[in-house]
């Protein structure tokens, strides 16, 4: 039980390279494991969540060598080269691990059981179990097939047409992976486009995937993905370099905006447009953020982000359609809203209730403790700014993004803010508090 204590900052200044992208790190391990041959992953994120993924594939017989400088060499054994795990696979806190792996395991001819920590055991799994069952997978899970633990007996899957009820990259990726193992062509649509790292990486590895953003989709569907069977084919290995995670960069960008006299440059950040909705919102709030040195790194757009304190920010209204592109930035956006003039309203965000914690409730409860006036809705929150924050003792709910968002709020609060269970930042950003301290004056 570790606590973090923070006080008001005078400024944030300097250069920072946030940790490698979590979503891309997970996918690199998974896809390299089912490719045939040796893949190299440079700048892998050594944090608790992606380590859950490495452990899972090691349990299924994949050799993963750790080299200097966060480089991994993965000896992939092909789509059908995994071996039955000897024990239950513990996915820890990682929704991405469990949901993506379930798609691979459903097509592999052996028995496996997946579980996770107390948070993951309360998160909905029917969203992957139901369509996987439609594809012919044999899956059982706790509480009428809704929650972990889940047991999978792999089968020959059949392709389906599936309209996802919610935009979710985890569900989409699970079904794309299952589609590789299915007979026929799997077609998936989603109501809004969620992050597309899976499509980009698998296509680069030779998978036959076609995406169609808006065209050929019905009116309420913004994205269609067509996946051809790979049952008689193989995935090629990859050699990739993982860029920095925009979701980790977001804490520093927000900090620089709200702490006066700040000026920071955030280096090497993945600016895939399915991830950077927060930048559009910041622009609407009147914040000064510049994206420069755009380049391509292993098939993902990457840039440096320069950011200065905003003299003033103005409140904005945010609703459903943009949510998938800032899904993980909800907590830090709430913090920004406390420093914007007027009432910021975020709606259509019900998915936030089933993340690592109920992030709507967590932010509403903890920001109130810091003196913010706000109203919580079933699908979002409204926050009255500009608020004068007062330091208090706050809870992380063992949720890394809640802990880091409250740390940024603490930088503009009078007095001392104490964050309980702050060690959870290790899920995605080991060393977060040290990095924050380094650039804070
Ligand atoms: C992720 C997808 C998102 C996101 C999560 C990582 C991924 O979840 O919130 O942190 O890597 O695919 P959903 O797909 O459930 O929205």
Q: How do you describe this structure in short?
A:
The protein has 441 residues and is α/β, with parallel strands linked by helices. Strands 20, 21, 22, 23 and 24 form a five-stranded mixed sheet that branches.
State the CATH architecture of the largest domain. Alpha-beta prism
Question: How would a textbook summarize the main sheet?
Answer: 5 strands, mixed
What is the fold-level CATH name, i.e. the topology of the largest domain? UDP-n-acetylglucosamine1-carboxyvinyl-transferase, Chain
Helix content: 25-40%
- Record field, number of beta strands: 28
SS class: alpha/beta
Q: Count of helical segments?
A: 13
Name the beta content range: 25-35%
The whole-angstrom Rg is 21 Å
Silhouette = globular
Q: For the residues shown, what is the average pLDDT?
A: 97
Please outline the helices and strands.
Layout (H helix, E strand, L loop, with lengths): L3 E4 L5 E4 L5 H13 L1 E7 L5 H12 L3 E5 L3 E7 L11 E2 L4 H11 L5 E5 L10 H9 L3 E4 H4 L1 E7 L3 E2 L2 E3 L5 H12 L1 E2 L1 E6 L6 H8 L4 E5 L9 E6 L10 E3 L4 H13 L4 E8 L6 H9 L3 E9 L2 E9 L4 E2 L2 E2 L11 H9 L1 E7 L12 H11 L4 E4 L2 E6 L3 E2 L2 E3 L4 H11 L2 E2 L1 E5 L11 H8 L2
Parallel strand pairs: 2-17, 3-16, 6-7, 10-12, 11-13, 20-22, 21-22, 25-27, 26-28
Antiparallel strand pairs: 1-28, 3-5, 4-5, 7-9, 8-9, 13-15, 14-15, 17-19, 18-19, 22-24, 23-24
The structure holds shikimate-3-phosphate (S3P).
The site of shikimate-3-phosphate (S3P) has 11 residues, from helix 6.
